[in-house]
Each structure stands twice: as structure tokens, then as C-alpha cells.
Amino acid sequence: INKKPGTCCAGQDIYDAKRVSEKLEIDHYVLNYESKFKNEVIEKFADSYLRGETPIPCVNCNQTVKFRDLFESAKNLKADALITGHYVKKIIDNNISKMYRPKDLNRDQTYFLFATTQEQLNYLHFPLGDLPKEQTRNIAKKLNLEVADKPDSQDICFVPDGNYVSVIERLRPEAHEPGNIVDVQGNVLGKHEGIINFTIGQRKGIKISGEIPYYVIKINAKTKEVVIGKKEELEIKKLKIEDINYLSDKEKDFNENIFVKVRSTGKLIESKLDVNMGTVTFEKGEFGVSPGQACVFYKPDQLGVRVLGGGWIRATE
User: Fold this and answer.
1) Exposure letters 174-184 (e unless 16+ CB within 10 A, then b)
2) What are the structural domains of the chain?
3) Which residues are catalytic?
4) pTM of the full predicted structure?
5) pLDDT at 233
6) What is the pLDDT, as a whole number, of residue 7?
7) pLDDT tens digits for range 206-230
8) Which residue, 52, 55, 61, is CA-closest to 86?
């Protein structure tokens, strides 16, 4: 993947970090994780789309390259802690490290860190958890750091122009295999040029006219069919989740309703988790929930809104 200036994969970030390190008089190390990043993040991103899912590469990046591999490197350097700029709050309560939503909820990144292990959380520090983003920038300005006005990252770092389809096409040329667009009864309404062009809940770009707007309801990777229908047919009330990571007492914290997020910018949804079946049932129906996304667990307590863990959405009903 070509690296472009202004993305978090670009060499410019290395020099930015170097200048900050020099200013603060701390050591600066450059670790080459390019092959790991490609295998663990980019390749899995492409494969997920081929399965008809909507992936979240940032979670895989945090789960593998950033926390697993960087964690190991920090330990090898005999560092006292691994400190990151994520907008997440860590609170030590009764000698237990707990993850909470940050003060600046507009920057909340807990959704992307649900797979953090307890061992990693014990070693991690999140100094920005109690700061609004503007205050973070003001501190950087007072320290005369050149990155104080650096633009926020917006897109997936290896897809800076937002055109993820072109990335998948380069990695998986077979991704453009055509198929049928069908309604929920299975009637063929048209053709498409590859399931990678669609996500659950999508409305634009379907290119099928009708009396009402059509939405993508389901993507069948095996048959290459894209199922479309009315908005109300998007409603689901239950999720099947896998690879669950718990950051809490599995027996005590899930014996009553919790809250979940099924998209990074989504609201907290009151739900019930069945820890034995790996299912989440919503109190009310939700729309546009896609396999490949994460379902992250939250629970308010006297210290804030705690992250209890989360898992990957594999199926909806």
C-alpha cells in the first residue's frame, strides 16, 4: 500500500514523533512493523469484505500491532508503562485496572479498544482520558510542539482517500465477481459488480429503482447475492457474537441488563448478554447492524461508564 503524506502510516509521523522526543528529551525508537501491519490488519480487512462483512481495521490494529507487539517491545525495553494518546480513561479501583469512557465523549475511543486484555490494561496509561481535545492541543502549544495544530486523522490510515474498494481490488483481484441483487423473497431485481461495493444499511449506489428507497438488508458471500428491501426490513433484535473479550467479572456484571455499542459513533443501547450462548438481545430493535463490526459492552457505575469488554458480530436476526 502506498504511503501518502498526512496519513498515520506515513513517514512524516516518524519525523513528527522524533521532533517531539527531542523537545521533551526522551529516547525515540523506530520499529518496523510493516509486514505485521499488512498481515494482521490490511489482509484481514480485505478478507472480511470478501465474506460480506463490514470490518473495523482499527480494532485489529490496536489488538495486534499496537498492543500485542508494541506491548512486547515496551517490555523488552524495560519501560515502566505503555502510554498512548487514545481518548480512554483508566481507573484503578480496589487494585483492579478498569477501562472507562473519557471525559470528551466526542473523542471516545473505547469502542476500538474492547479487545484489550487485563494484562495490557494494567500496563497501559491513557493521560488524555480526562482532557478535552482542545485542552490537549493547548498543552502542546504551551510546550511549543510542532504537532499542536496537526489535523485529526479521519479515514482508515491505509485508505486515506476513502476508496477502500480500490485497496481490496489490488489485494484480492477476484473481489469484483458479479452477482444478483435480489429482494427478501429471492426475486432477482438486477446485477452487481462485486459484493465489496455494498455494506449493510447502504442506500446509495444500489442502482435499482422502485416506489420506495431500497436498502441493503443482507450480503450472501457464498451465492454473491445482495439482498435489498425496505428500511423496516433492516431491523434486528439479536446478535450472535464471537471471540468475546471480558474486562470484568463475567458472572457478576452480566446478570442484569447492560449497554452496548454496535458502531463507533453509535449510541449506548440497553441490552441483555447471554454469556453462555454468546448472544446480545436488544430491548428495542436496531437498524443497519453488520457482521464484521464490534459489539462493545458498557455499564454505568459510581466512577463513570465502564467498558466490560466486547466481541465480534458474526450474525444478526
Assistant:
1) ebeeebbbbbe
2) 11-149 (3.40.50.620), 177-233 (2.30.30.280), 234-316 (2.40.30.10)
3) 61, 157
4) 0.92
5) 95
6) 44
7) 989 888 899 999 999 999 999 999 9
8) 61
CA-CA distance, 302 to 246, in Å (whole number)? 20
Contact present, 234 and 201 (Cβ < 8 Å): yes
pLDDT at 255: 84
What gap in Å lies between CA 246 and CA 38, rounded to an integer?
Answer: 27
- C-beta atoms surrounding 311 within 10 Å: 23
Q: First and final CA of the chain: distance in angstroms?
A: 36
Please, are residues 102 and 90 in contact by the beta-carbon 8 Å criterion? no
- Percentage of the chain exceeding pLDDT 90: 79
**CA 273, CA 287: separation in Å to the nearest integer?**
19
Cell 455499564 locates to 299
Query: Which grid coordinates belong to 42?
Result: 490490511
Position with higher pLDDT, 273 vs 249: 273
CA distance 297 to 283: 15
56 residue type, one letter: I
Confidence at residue 2, expressed as pLDDT on a 0 to 100 scale: 38
For the chain, what's the residue count?
A: 317
DSSP 25: T
